Structure formats: C-alpha cells, structure tokens
Amino acid sequence: NAYNNLQQRLHTLNNLGLALQRLDRLDEAERYLRESLRLYRARHGDEGPQVAMAHSRLGDGLRRQGELAEAAELYERALELLRASGDEDSRAFSLTRAGLALVRQDQGEFAVADRLWRQDLEQLRARRGPDHPEVARLLNNLGTNARFLGEYQRAEELFAEALRIQREKLPAEHLATATTLHNLAILEMSL
To answer: What is the pTM of this model?
Structure first.
C-alpha cells in the first residue's frame, strides 16, 4: 500500500509539473518536477528509465527557463541512465537527445547540436522508416541548425525533404507543414 501511495504521488507530481509547463508556469513546474525527481531517486536509486525520464522532464523545464547548463547536465545524465538500461532505441532516448540538441543550439554549439540531430535522424529512420512525420520534424530541426551554421544549401535541402514528407503524410493545414514553410521563408530572407 505504501508503494501504491508513492507511485500515485509520483504520478501526480509529474503530471502537475508537466501541466504547469504547458501553461508556461515554469517556476511552479520546476518545483514539482524537482520533487518528482527526488522521489524517483528515493524509490529507484539513481538508475533506470523512470529516473532517467524524471531527469529529462526537469531538463525540459530548465531549458525553457534558460537554465541551459543545468538542463544539459540533466539531459546527459538521463542519456547515461537510458544507455545503462538498454533503452538507446527508445522514444525516451530520442526525446532526451533532442532536448540536449536544443540546449546545445541555444548555447551556440551548433556543431554539437548537428551531431546529436544526425544521430537521432539515423536512429529514427531505422525505427520508423524514411518517410515518417517524426523524420520530417528532425529534418526541420537539422535544417534550422544548418542555417545557423551558415550551410544554406544543406538547410534548403533538409527543409525541402521535410516538406515533401509532410505534404505526403500530414493533412494540408498541419502546423508542422506551416512551420517548415516558415523556416524556408526565413532561409530565403537570409540569402
């Protein structure tokens, strides 16, 4: 019964933290996500996929707050924990690596972000196929990063491939397609 109570409390803290993040109440979300991480560690030690995802969720919140150094540490620790538990092919690993890539991009470490996005793209293509909408999302992220690197031709090719997938796989008015079109327009204005 004590185990069930702890599990319920963990679920509640986690869900409350995520809901507050979505509402942009980031300071409040951070408090709940830190408490959730503390309890996951108390329950599971500092190992396993649940603890890894608690690190990653807190990293997401801190990244959005601009606390990039701590967010990077949390993402890196989450990736270590997921590797140790054999979860390198999981969606959790991919999302955590994407969070770390965004941090590196925000820190101006575009080459590091590019390497992380490429690893994620390779893994996702192997897992979901070359024309999955999530592949298009990663191509879009890679295109944005290539633009930051000044690799305009490569950025255009990545955006074009993302747009092709989105037009084939998503409804015409999908937000992801609009985002890619927007990114192409920004690229054109950069030239």
So the answer is: 0.86
